Amino acid sequence: MSPEDRAAGAVAAHREASPGAPEDVSASSQTRTVERRDRALTIACVVAFLALLALLPLWTPTNRILTLAVTACISGIAVYGLDLLYGQIGILSLAHAALQGIGAYTAAIALRDLDVSFWLALPLSAAVAAVVAALLGYPAARVRGHHFVILTFAFGEFIRIALNNGGEFTGGAEGVLVLAGIPPVLGWNPSGVAGLSSGADYYYLAFGLLVVAIIASRLVIGSPFGRTCRAIRENEELARASGIDATRYKVLLFMVSGLFAGVAGVLYAYFLGHISPNEFGVLASVQLVLMLLIGGSRVLFGPLLGVALVIFLPEIIRADPVSVQIVYGAGLIAVILLVPAGLAPGLLALWRRSRGWRTES
Amino acid sequence: MVDVLQQVVNGVAIASVIALVAIGITVIFGLTGIVNFAHGEFLVVGGFLTWWLALQGVPYAAAVVVCALAVGALGVGLERGLWRFTLKAPINGFIISLGLSIVLQHAVIKIWNPSATPVSIQSPVSGEIRLGDLVISNVRIMVIVLTAAVLGATFWAVERTRHGRALRAIAEDRDTAALMGIPVRRYITAVFGIGSLLAGLGGALLLALFPISPFSGQSFVIKGFAVALIGGLGNITGAVIAALMLGLAEAFSAGYLAPQWTGAYAFILMIAILLFRPQGILRGTEGSRVT
Q: Which helix (H) or strand (E) holds A271?
């Protein structure tokens, strides 16, 4: 057990001693039962939902629905990364679309200049996005909480401006074309040049990577690293006093969530076949935050629900794009005022109450 | 030399608008800990309201007054209806401001500007002043003088009146101020009102200088936060000084260096300040912590 693990344990113990803390875990058996039921319920929900998504192409949906579904998977990967950051260490980033853009541009430029294929671009772009996240995270995490979100906001804009002014290298405002298929793997050919010409295969690719992202995020949460991050979230002062280098953990976790954004970026670039700087501006970042917070952070099902709602809402209400944006904004405000934790935790509480389960331990 | 002076005038004119936005941002943060990303939209709403009034034939001076008051009232209404419920958890106030900025931005498009293109009005004040080779248009002088007057009044109110003293007390320690009998909530509402009024005024003045688009709010809210951070969050004097720095930097860059990078200076200044002097050039309040 490293000193930092011990320190995290001390903070966790402190949290347990203070009643009413968000993750107050008392030893009563009733709490455990509730917890176990919760976990089973959540896992059942996610499995059912994922199964539903996996079967989606069998219903021979229209191209438009399939396009939206792929978009949802891509955004989902980025949002699960954002969820790690916000849910585990409690900082919000408005630069995630920009990091996604870094991933997309890395893949596109590597393809154009070095002929790097999709499967190689995946780890490469993730790594580059993580490095850029570190470059931003270090100055941002050195200062106090509220500065972080403001800095990421400015940083997102800065990346957009830089991509616009990159000349030949980034293609300026025109952007870069990504006109290559995805090389077959083990006899499976998920070619996806400019849309879904090859049917549902690209969807399965994006969907598979989304599942990988969800599993990866749970692994991070379950690790000692995730535990230390939660300790910092609960009480940064105490964590620091216990010898945890909070700044380092913030930067590391920001890098990890950058990996997710980078992967999402590669998928995005290959899916659309063309990328340009303005797709990765602050509005896109706000959109990701919106998905996370409407769905609810810290709950396995939350990001998935938020992404699905935000992406498919225009299909459901069938209004013009401007009105849809107004509905998104108003929806976010309503969720924050009525169920501040997000819809998924809200639904969970509702379900529990309807079954007569105790909601408070 | 004349060229340099010309850029100084341009810079101060831009700085005026930035300062008008930044004051609201910095004071609201100092008092409530809320990072208000919707503040730039108040500027846009103000600009478009002025534009619409001008189209209806209302004289510019009247339009400015009406629009500043209307945007101020909007700020009061939003505080009463939304932010009031988030005073205990400023992070939620920040998230609400994200939603609100989307709503306001697209409401402006929906109401006034379906094509989402920049709009402009005829310059409300014509003519120019010549000092030797130096040519200063009267519009710029109007913007600078008006802003200086409004800022002067704000300073006086904050530093010399009992209301100003009450505000400073709340910024220092909200609970103790409440115990001393200061009606904290009323002051918070008032600050939202005045902050958005100043931003609305900024929008009206900006429209006199440049075309304004429904998306102008975003770049101004970044500049506003950059300036508020550089000056020290919660510190009005610092915000004004920092606004002048940023305005001049942008004007000189547009005139001499690389105009396409102008938008990035706010960010670079911000990083530099936060790395070397996180509390800003003048001391700001720590504020409630927002994560």
A: helix A246-272
Q: Please tell me the pTM assigned to this model.
A: 0.83
Which of A260, A302, A309, A269 lies closest to A287, judged by CA? A309
Chain A nearest-CA distance from B135, in A, is: 32
- From the CA of A46, how many Å to the nearest CA of chain B? 26
Which of B17, B64, B11 is CA-nearest to residue B199? Answer: B17
The answer to whether B107 faces chain A, any CB pair under 8 Å, is: yes
Q: Are B262 and B246 contacting, i.e. CB atoms less than 8 angstroms apart?
A: no
pLDDT band at A21 (very low <50, low <70, confident <90, very high): very low
Helical ranges in chain B per DSSP H? 2-32, 39-55, 60-81, 90-112, 138-160, 162-172, 174-179, 184-209, 216-231, 236-255, 265-276
Q: Which two tokens stand for residue A339?
A: 């169920």
B257 touches chain A (CB under 8 A): no
Cβ burial B44-78 (10 Å sphere, 16+ → b, else e): bbbbbbbbbbbeeeeebeebbebbbebbbebbbeb
SS3 B160: helix
Give chain B positions within 8 Å (CB) of A147.
229, 274, 278
Cα B16 → chain centroid = 9
> Do B261 and A155 lie within an 8 Å CB cutoff?
no
The segments of chain B whose pLDDT lies below 50 read 286-291
Tens of pLDDT, residues A50-89: 787 777 777 766 778 888 888 999 999 999 999 999 999 9
C-beta atoms of B86 and A336 within 8 A: yes
Q: Is B266 on the interface with A (CB under 8 A)?
A: yes
What average pLDDT does range A302-331 have in this prediction?
Answer: 86
Question: Is A326 in contact with B226 (Cβ distance < 8 A)?
Answer: no
Better pLDDT: B139 or A318: B139
Partner-chain residue, chosen from B226, B264, B275, that has the shortest CB–CB distance to A161: B264
Give the residue on B whose Cα is nearest the Cα of A281.
B218
Helix/strand/coil for A177? strand
Please give the full DSSP string across B37-68, using - where no structure is assigned. TTHHHHHHHHHHHHHHHHHTT--HHHHHHHHH
Cβ neighbours of A323 in B, within 8 Å: 106, 110
Name the residue of chain A whose CA is nearest to B233's CA: A147
User: Could you give the ipTM of this predicted complex?
Assistant: 0.85
